[in-house]
Amino acid sequence: QKEVEQNSGPLSVPEGAIASLNCTYSDRGSQSFFWYRQYSGKSPELIMSIYSNGDKEDGRFTAQLNKASQYVSLLIRDSQPSDSATYLCAVNRDDKIIFGKGTRLHILP
Amino acid sequence: GAVVSQHPSRVICKSGTSVKIECRSLDFQATTMFWYRQFPKQSLMLMATSNEGSKATYEQGVEKDKFLINHASLTLSTLTVTSAHPEDSSFYICSANAGAPIASQYFGPGTRLTVL
Fold it and tell me: Which tens digit of pLDDT belongs to each residue from A14-69?
């Protein structure tokens, strides 16, 4: 089982709708969870970090964590064309960050 | 925010040559730096953890004699790909950790290596 699993997509969402991205992880000892956005040919950019169960909101982004289910999600409200990118879920393993393969998100104008 | 630079941004070399990539933290001291490799449409794969003044810790399956890492100061880490081959062509990204919490990890812009 991979440490961090994501559906590779592409996920197509109409502009203005809610995009929902999901991720599962295998290490129950992980305590830190991250969502990164990566545009083609660029390095990742941190969008959200979450450390405790529940929801965390930041602008149009909401991260959700369920440690019992080993599940992390990212909701993007009012999706914009500029949100089209690959979204990487990442978790900590000790002092390192381990990335999932990423989900390609395409916002349809 | 903190800035991490990488040089060069893009390099093309012949098979068998060695290539050095620099990673610098510009406005903070990085106790730890990380080197990742990303193939097209693949995830970032952690190659090694670089600590200032000590040997790098390599992830399983990464050849330490092929990917030489030097972290000579708190602001500079280098990755040397020795005897590069076409299969080493990839996007190499470094990140620097300014300390706790773990989220304070800043990524460089990446280096695109193409081996002919």
Answer: 999 999 999 999 999 888 999 999 999 899 998 999 999 999 999 999 999 999 99
Distance from CA of A25 to the nearest CA of B (A): 14
Nearest to B107 among A8, A44, A49 (CB): A44
Q: Which residues are bridge partners to A34 per DSSP?
A: A49, A90
Half-sphere exposure of A1 (CA within 13 A, CB side): 7
Tally A–B CB contacts below 8 A.
Answer: 48
Q: Is B103 helix (H, G, I), strand (E, B) or coil?
A: coil
Taking alpha carbons only, the member of B10, A2, B92, A49 closest to residue B80 is: B92
Q: List the structure tokens of A104.
A: 């390609």
Phi, psi of A89 (to 5 degrees): -90, 140
Contacts of A42 in chain B (CB under 8 A): 109-110
Q: Output DSSP code: residue A81.
A: G
